[in-house]
């Protein structure tokens, strides 16, 4: 009988998990379900909210967490990817879980592998489920990693499933068109359970998939409404009645009221099992934080950093709308770093007329893209980028020419914004 797999540090476990499976990504629930079953895990009794979508799911998760915590609930959260530290991915009541809890979960998974192996993300997801099983919070929020139907978190039947948006991304795994992608994302819906969609006009395939599953679909614009007001506040309404004059979410951006409404619709779908008073909703909206989503940081030189993980065309369009809504009197410089499998032309297009100078940054990892290659791809669509080396180096080059009233936008990937956060 082989010796059990054991490592003394979280970092050692993570290094092993990176190479434990022959493929970095292999969608499917068979291996995940078998391993999870062998651990002895039992589906939690507390409400589970699963959040998917091409864009906006991180914001939606953050607002769900903030509102629940403002109402005095203990909340367990699993998100991905992380920006600076793996431990960001699994939180309990706003705090990263301990190394001891992670190692105990990793050992339990390793002992249950049998003849199966798991990808890095699958290890992450199962570790989160095991840690949160032991912690027994009042509510659990799970963020889908990719797609939905075959994503590891979908091994859990959600009490409420949320699809914030459907757009073009991960097409090599999810399909070549919006209909295919929508069907994959709708795979987190469950029969007779609330399924919340944050799109006013979702692909017909999502509506059809919800109907075929027998889910209780609730569409933004049809079943719940969000209306921004001139005084900076906003109104919400659904079948349970209106909430007028809500404060704007603390997350900046043109899409965030819609994301807040989607999160609120998901929470109200849990009533009476889990209810929140208006005061908790307001405090959550006003206190929510999420790094890397149109995050604005004032630099000592009088210019502004803007950090945004936008890495697909729809997210880039939202970033462009934000830049247009909050203009600066000086120049806008961009530091862009992307992964090799992303749609460079589609991401750069919406920003073309809003950026005065461009620098390309190299992203790390197996899917990383060198600055010179990114600059070549940008040149093919008529954008001139200066190769700037690693993210920190490209930021220094951009900052060297920045003056008071300018801004520097660092965007294109979590692999770009993560290193940028360590520099600003």
Q: Judging from the principal axes of the Cα atoms, what is the shape?
A: globular
Which value, in Å, is the CA radius of gyration? 21 Å
* Poorly predicted regions: none
| Strand runs, count | 17
Strand proportion: 15-25%
Layout of SSEs?
Blueprint: H1 10-18, H2 30-39, E1 48-52, H3 57-70, E2 75-78, E3 90-92, E4 95-96, H4 99-111, H5 120-135, E5 139-143, E6 160-163, H6 171-174, H7 178-185, E7 194-197, H8 204-213, E8 216-219, E9 224-228, E10 234-238, E11 241-246, H9 256-268, H10 278-287, E12 295-298, E13 304-308, H11 313-325, E14 332-336, H12 344-348, E15 357-362, H13 371-379, E16 386-390, H14 391-400, E17 407-411, H15 414-421
Parallel strand pairs: 1-5, 1-6, 2-5, 6-7, 7-8, 13-17, 14-15, 14-17, 15-16
Antiparallel strand pairs: 2-3, 3-4, 9-10, 10-11, 12-13
């Amino acid at each position: 009988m082989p010796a059990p797999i054991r490592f003394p540090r979280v970092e050692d476990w993570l290094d092993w998990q990176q190479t434990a499976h022959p493929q970095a990504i292999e969608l499917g629930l068979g291996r995940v379900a078998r391993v999870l079953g062998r651990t002895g895990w039992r589906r939690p009794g507390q409400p589970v909210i699963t959040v998917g979508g091409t864009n906006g799911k991180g914001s939606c998760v953050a607002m769900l967490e903030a509102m629940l915590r403002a109402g005095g609930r203990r909340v367990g959260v699993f998100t991905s990817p992380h920006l600076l530290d793996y431990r960001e991915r699994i939180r309990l009541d706003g705090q990263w879980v301990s190394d001891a809890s992670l190692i105990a979960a990793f050992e339990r998974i390793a002992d249950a592998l049998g003849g199966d192996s798991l990808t890095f993300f699958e290890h992450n997801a199962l570790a989160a489920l095991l840690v949160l099983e032991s912690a027994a919070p009042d509510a659990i929020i799970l963020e889908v990693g990719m797609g939905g139907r075959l994503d590891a978190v979908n091994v859990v039947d959600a009490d409420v499933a949320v699809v914030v948006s459907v757009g073009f991304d991960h097409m090599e795994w999810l399909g070549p068109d919006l209909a295919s992608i929508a069907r994959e994302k709708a795979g987190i819906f469950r029969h007779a359970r609330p399924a919340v969609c944050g799109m006013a006009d979702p692909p017909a395939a999502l509506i059809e998939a919800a109907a075929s599953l027998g889910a209780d679909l609730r569409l933004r614009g049809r079943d719940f409404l969000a209306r921004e007001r001139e005084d900076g506040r906003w109104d919400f309404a659904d079948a349970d009645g209106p909430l007028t004059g809500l404060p704007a979410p603390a997350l900046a951006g043109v899409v965030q009221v819609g994301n807040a409404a989607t999160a609120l619709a998901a929470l109200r779908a849990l009533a009476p099992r889990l209810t929140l008073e208006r005061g908790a909703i307001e405090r959550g909206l006003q206190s929510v934080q999420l790094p890397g989503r149109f995050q604005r940081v004032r630099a000592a030189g009088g210019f502004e950093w803007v950090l945004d993980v936008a890495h697909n065309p729809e997210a880039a369009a939202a970033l462009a709308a934000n830049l247009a809504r909050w203009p600066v009197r000086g120049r806008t410089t961009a530091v862009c770093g992307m992964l090799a499998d992303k749609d460079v032309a589609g991401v750069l297009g919406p920003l073309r007329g809003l950026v005065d100078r461009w620098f390309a940054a190299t992203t790390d990892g197996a899917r990383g893209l060198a600055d010179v290659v990114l600059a070549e791809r940008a040149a093919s669509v008529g954008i001139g980028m200066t190769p700037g080396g690693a993210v920190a180096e490209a930021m220094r080059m951009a900052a060297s020419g920045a003056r008071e009233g300018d801004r520097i936008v660092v965007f294109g990937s979590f692999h770009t914004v993560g290193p940028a956060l360590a520099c600003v």
